[in-house]
Amino acid sequence: MRILVTGGAGYIGSHTVLELLNTGYEVVVLDNLSNSSPESLKRVEKLTGKKVTFYEADILDRDKLNEIFSKEKFDACIHFAGLKAVGESVEKPWEYYENNIAGTLTLVDVMRKHNLKNIIFSSSATVYGDPAFVPITEECPKGQCTNPYGWTKSMLEQVLSDIQKADKEWNVILLRYFNPIGAHKSGTMGEDPNGIPNNLMPYITQVAIGKRDHLTIFGNDYDTHDGTGVRDYIHVVDLAIGHVKALNKIKENCGLKIYNLGTGHGYSVLDIVKNFEEANGVKIPYEIGPRRSGDIATCYASADKAKEELGWTAQYGIKDMCADAWNWQKNNPNGYGK
Ligand code: NAD
Ligand code: UFG
Questions:
Q1: Of 155, 32, 179, nearest to 102 (Cα)?
Q2: Can you tell me whether residue 8 is helix, strand or coil?
Q3: Ligand 2 pocket, Cβ-based, cut-off 6 angstroms
Q4: Count of Cβ atoms closer than 10 Å to residue 305 Cβ
Q5: Which SS3 state, helix, strand or coil, does residue 253 take?
Q6: Mean of the pLDDT values across residues 52-68?
Q7: Atom 27, ligand 1: which residue's CA is nearest?
Q8: Exposed/middle/buried for 167, CB within 10 Å: 0-12, 13-18, 19+?
Q9: What is the helix (H) or strand (E) element at residue 261, kind and residue range?
Q10: Catalytic residue among 128, 149, 233, 316
Q11: d(Cα 315, Cα 6) in Å, to the nearest integer?
């Protein structure tokens, strides 16, 4: 089977491409490299000994998409391409709505015109807003998003669900990721954020390597076991394997399906700092700062549905996630050097 992976040069995409190749799929990556480097795919090729066909293209570019779809035959699309920086989306809402929503509408239109109606979409736990209950099951009502990025995910879930309802030839899987961290065991692939990292783990690894002098913890007065925010951190390789399992479901003509991809465990910011220090023997100096606007106290998944229906469970624990994130950072202090 031949899989189109949009955004395949990015963090989660590149790890997924590797798992797809190792499972025997052929992979074509389409990415505009706005937040990634082609080096990630070279590393994938080196690790797998297999070839990745790559198109530098934008999902908003209908002509280019038509050209690619006329040349290549695909059995399914895994759609990662999108902008994802929460804070930036507040500053540049139009750019986020255009890139993520107009981009996905263009992609989906080209897909249907070329009779490709199988899609796996990167959604997010952010669609639950401040969750009505934890652990969060897929039945938990969607909530109010606190930023335009979150709304693009929530709206695109609706768009894809409606398209599938109207045309049963579509198979649509919405994967709601919790907090992906970590890196491939080889230490040659990982997360390579631009500028100052927004997310916790890349910030911690940059403190560990000496690029930043301390971590600021955003609030210690939440209603959690130690006052700091609790999240469901999931190893990026586990997340990647979740996509391979979701493809098996697509092959069964599954219609519309929604799955949480999380571990079912919640860790606080202080738990992560402690685990990182223990796993790697590196000290992480930190200060307590004010809460970050839009943050919630607690978010973790029920991972039961993915286990029952996809046969997927996260394998890696928090120490592996911390060790692998550090192994990547210390071997690649400047990421892919983009
Ligand atoms: P990433 O930025 O590393 O990867 C996204 C890729 O999409 C990048 O390679 C970028 O160059 C590409 N891209 C962006 N706009 C494009 C466009 N218009 N045309 C073609 N390519 C484009 O991010 P990631 O962490 O790998 O996330 C992948 C997906 O998962 C995104 O849709 C993201 O919103 C979603 N997601 C991420 C997280 C997370 O915490 N990392 C959590 C939930 C959901
Ligand atoms: N945090 C700090 N200091 C930092 C960075 C983060 O204390 O420098 C805290 C946050 O306040 C939060 C926790 O660490 O309590 C995790 O924060 P992240 O920014 O790493 O992750 P979020 O849970 O805020 O959001 C991430 C992605 C979203 C996605 C969501 C759920 O950024 O896009 O996970 O998947 F929607």
A1: 155
A2: coil
A3: 84, 86, 124-126, 177-179, 198-200, 203, 215-218, 229, 231, 269, 292, 295
A4: 17
A5: coil
A6: 98
A7: 12
A8: exposed
A9: strand 256-261
A10: 149
A11: 26
The predicted pLDDT at position 338 comes to 63
Mean of pLDDT values over 152-171: 98
pLDDT digits (tens, 9 = 90+) for 7-48: 999 999 999 999 999 999 999 999 999 999 999 999 999 999
- Average pLDDT over every residue of 145-169: 98
Q: Count CB neighbours of 168 within 10 A.
A: 11
Look up residue 323 and give its two tokens: 């060790």
Give the ligand 2 atom nearest the CA of 215: 8
Answer whether 130's CB lies under 8 Å from 143's CB. yes
Minimal CA–CA distance to 338: which of 168, 155, 194, 151? 194
Q: Are 313 and 169 in contact (CB under 8 A)?
A: no
Six-digit token string for 301: 């998944």
Ligand 2 centroid to Cα of residue 200, in Å, is 6
Tell me, using a 6 A CB cutoff, whether residue 14 lines ligand 1: no
β-bridge partners, 216: 287
For residue 125, the CA-to-ligand 2 centroid distance in Å is: 11
Determine the residue type at 217: I
Name the residue with the closest Cα to ligand 1, atom 13: 81
Do residues 87 and 14 lie in contact, with contact meaning Cβ atoms separated by under 8 Å? no
**How far is residue 77 from each of residues 65, 241, 338, measured CA to CA in Å?**
13, 15, 26
Active site residue 97: no
